[in-house]
């Protein structure tokens, strides 16, 4: 049983009611078919209403759902023969970022993604999906390897942000992220990034300088968490709900600002309700990006990425 | 005697005014008191020595224009994109007013001054961030101005130098601010591809998204003494790791010790250092 989120409660209550009536029908031999049918119709309407009118904050909750599929879940659905490759060759292996080589419908690709855990134990091992510098350096090592062998790169973005810790600072968290941005800009192979959960600031962007960026419908991408924004802007983290709206962090917002290429629709209620079904929608998005990007020449690939990021920004031109 | 002296001291303290943050950073009055060693100098003298305390070597924050005076040969600097204007893409209340008020205060259109000038006769593109403008935070205009300066350097095949001073991304422009990190990076990648020199000079403070993009990827990374440089804020880290951080944590010297910087350069040596580095990278020298 998937844990319901607060905004889903009316749906869950109605579902329980229907279940109850069904049980009564079975046990007491009372025919409630008509009632059940009318309630089921109401449920459909209610679901359409609730899931069709999700607020930014609702989506934040879905994006953070403990059972939301992670990078490794999608890798299992989308690729064959995945071989995980470890380590940055300089300091260690960061379990908050996973990467390796796999086959996507017969084409060898390099896959990299943030990896959080689904329970406390795994979350501690994976540092809640918040990478240290060695994670970004491992990612860069695998990207350079992909470039050498002409493999497309697919990145899954799912992090609250790069880890704000003492050791991370000592080992150059800033440099690790910054290096990835510049190096990704110059990669001679196609790069496709998909935001599958939270896209938290620089820590997300470190895997995000891609030719195509896709976002799952209920994922978010932002410069700071809603809580952080609320505490900086209004000195009150409790105003996170308002901040989530004001900061424009949903997939639809980013599509409207022309920052991302495509919003990947989610299954009703969010990806955690049907990971396999969600993976198919992602497969479509990757497939369509690969079809567009793979035939491009090296120079075109780099130029395409340059154009994409060069044009982001809103300002008024003035006279000197 | 001692008691009398003590009383005298106390009296003095009672009537002393506490200077505001702004007063500490911007010597406007006749005299300026160093926030580090508390010694008092004539503001006129302070300006003569590049805003460095003659007693303890404290580097005061500089405005972008002050840096231009320190760095470039006289009358060689030509600014770029001075008329570009910030808009309010997310519709944050009173955002434009805040930007306009800082523009008036600093004489800049945004938190960075860009342009081209000569350093000992060597043509160089530069971007100088100014922390007196919205904490030097980076929004669309800052990102665009820096990108254009890099592109100009690429086009003219000249070095690019950036002086960073920034609290990070501009919150009020949301994810558009974040994406300026990527925008400047794609431009730097092109500049690097042409074999051109990029020097980053980190000044106080350089944190967040600015530290995690162009500031950290110079061919040569320099910093001013004692400058605060880091990815995450000190308070955030202390809350995360629940331990006391060392006094010098995230200072230029700390970064140097941890292999994150090429050198810490005193302001009085900065022009000479940059000029020499540029000379080493000219065609004639190679």
Automatic annotation (TrEMBL), chain A:
One Pfam family per UniProt: ACCA
One Gene Ontology term of the molecular function aspect: acetyl-CoA carboxylase activity
Domain CoA carboxyltransferase C-terminal per the UniProt entry, residue ranges: 38-292
Keyword Transmembrane helix part of the UniProt annotation: no
InterPro entries: Acetyl_CoA_COase_a_su, ClpP/crotonase-like_dom_sf, COA_CT_C
NCBIfam families recorded: accA, AccA_sub, PRK05724.1
The family this protein is said to belong to: Belongs to the AccA family.
HAMAP family linked: AcetylCoA_CT_alpha
Protein name stated in the entry: Acetyl-coenzyme A carboxylase carboxyl transferase subunit alpha
Name of the gene this protein is made from: accA
UniProtKB/TrEMBL annotation, chain B:
Pathway where it operates: Lipid metabolism; malonyl-CoA biosynthesis; malonyl-CoA from acetyl-CoA: step 1/1
Cofactor note: Binds 1 zinc ion per subunit.
Enzyme class: transferase
EC number of the protein: 2.1.3.15
Required cofactor(s): Zn(2+)
Keyword Endoplasmic reticulum carried by entry: no
Catalysed reactions listed for this entry: N(6)-carboxybiotinyl-L-lysyl-[protein] + acetyl-CoA = N(6)-biotinyl-L-lysyl-[protein] + malonyl-CoA
Binding site for Zn(2+): 34, 37, 53, 56
Key words, A-Z: ATP-binding, Cytoplasm, Fatty acid biosynthesis, Fatty acid metabolism, Ligase, Lipid biosynthesis, Lipid metabolism, Metal-binding, Nucleotide-binding, Transferase, Zinc, Zinc-finger
Span of domain CoA carboxyltransferase N-terminal: 30-286
UniProt xrefs under InterPro entries: AcCoA_carboxyl_beta, Acetyl_CoA_COase_Trfase_b_su, ClpP/crotonase-like_dom_sf, COA_CT_N
Subunit description: Acetyl-CoA carboxylase is a heterohexamer composed of biotin carboxyl carrier protein (AccB), biotin carboxylase (AccC) and two subunits each of ACCase subunit alpha (AccA) and ACCase subunit beta (AccD).
Biological function: Component of the acetyl coenzyme A carboxylase (ACC) complex. Biotin carboxylase (BC) catalyzes the carboxylation of biotin on its carrier protein (BCCP) and then the CO(2) group is transferred by the transcarboxylase to acetyl-CoA to form malonyl-CoA.
Protein family: Belongs to the AccD/PCCB family.
Annotated protein name in UniProt: Acetyl-coenzyme A carboxylase carboxyl transferase subunit beta
Organism: Bhargavaea changchunensis
Gene: accD
């Amino acid at each position: 049983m998937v844990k319901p989120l607060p905004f889903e409660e009316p749906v869950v209550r109605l579902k329980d009611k229907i279940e109850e009536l069904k049980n009564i029908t079975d046990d007491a031999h009372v025919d409630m078919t008509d009632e059940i049918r009318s309630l089921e119709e109401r449920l459909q309407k209610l679901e359409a209403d609730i899931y069709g009118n999700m607020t930014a904050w609702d989506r934040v909750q879905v994006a953070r759902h403990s059972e939301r599929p992670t990078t490794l879940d999608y890798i299992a659905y989308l690729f064959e023969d995945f071989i995980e490759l470890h380590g940055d060759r300089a300091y260690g292996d960061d379990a908050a970022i996973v990467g390796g080589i796999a086959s996507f419908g017969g084409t060898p690709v390099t896959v990299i993604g943030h990896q959080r855990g689904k329970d406390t134990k795994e979350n501690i091992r994976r540092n809640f999906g918040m990478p240290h510098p060695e994670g970004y350096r491992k990612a860069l090592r695998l990207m350079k390897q992909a470039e050498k062998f002409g493999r497309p790169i697919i990145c899954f973005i799912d992090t609250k942000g790069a880890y704000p810790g003492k050791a991370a600072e000592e080992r150059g968290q800033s440099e690790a992220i910054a290096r990835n941005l510049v190096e990704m800009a110059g990669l001679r192979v196609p790069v496709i990034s998909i935001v599958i959960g939270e896209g938290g600031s620089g820590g997300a962007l470190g895997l995000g300088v891609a030719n195509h960026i896709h976002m799952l419908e209920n994922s978010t991408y932002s410069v700071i968490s809603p809580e952080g924004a609320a505490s900086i802007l209004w000195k009150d983290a409790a105003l996170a709900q308002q901040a989530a709206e004001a900061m424009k962090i949903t997939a639809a917002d980013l599509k409207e600002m022309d920052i991302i290429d495509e919003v990947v629709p989610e299954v009703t209620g969010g990806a955690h309700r049907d990971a396999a079904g969600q993976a198919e929608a992602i497969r479509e998005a990757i497939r369509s990006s690969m079809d567009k990007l793979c035939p491009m020449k090296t120079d075109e690939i780099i130029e395409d990425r340059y154009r994409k990021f060069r044009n982001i920004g809103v300002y008024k031109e003035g006279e000197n | 005697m001692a008691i009398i002296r003590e009383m005298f001291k106390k009296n003095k303290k009672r009537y002393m005014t506490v200077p505001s943050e702004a007063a500490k950073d911007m010597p406007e009055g006749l005299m300026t008191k160093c926030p580090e060693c508390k010694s008092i100098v004539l503001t006129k003298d302070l300006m003569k020595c590049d805003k460095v305390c003659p007693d303890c070597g404290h580097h005061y924050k500089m405005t972008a224009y002050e840096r231009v005076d320190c760095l470039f040969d006289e009358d060689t600097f030509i600014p770029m994109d001075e008329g570009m204007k910030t808009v309010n893409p997310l519709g944050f209340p009173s955002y434009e007013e805040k930007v306009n008020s800082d523009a008036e205060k600093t004489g800049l259109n945004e938190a960075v001054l860009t342009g081209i000038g000569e350093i000992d006769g060597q043509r160089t593109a530069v971007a100088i961030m100014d922390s007196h403008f919205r904490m030097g935070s980076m929004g669309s205009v800052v990102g665009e101005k820096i990108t254009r300066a890099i592109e100009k350097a690429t086009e003219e095949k000249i070095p690019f130098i950036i002086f960073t001073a920034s609290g990070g991304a501009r919150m009020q422009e949301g994810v558009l601010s974040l994406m300026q990190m990527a925008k400047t990076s794609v431009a730097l990648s092109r500049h690097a591809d042409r074999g051109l020199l990029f020097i980053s000079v980190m000044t106080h403070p350089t944190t967040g998204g600015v530290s995690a993009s162009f500031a950290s990827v110079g061919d040569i990374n320099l910093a001013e003494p004692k400058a605060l440089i880091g990815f995450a804020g000190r308070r955030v880290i202390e809350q995360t790791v629940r331990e006391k951080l060392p006094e010098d944590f995230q200072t230029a010297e700390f970064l140097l010790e941890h292999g994150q910087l090429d050198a810490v350069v005193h302001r009085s040596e900065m022009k000479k250092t940059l000029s020499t580095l540029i000379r080493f990278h000219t065609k004639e020298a190679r």
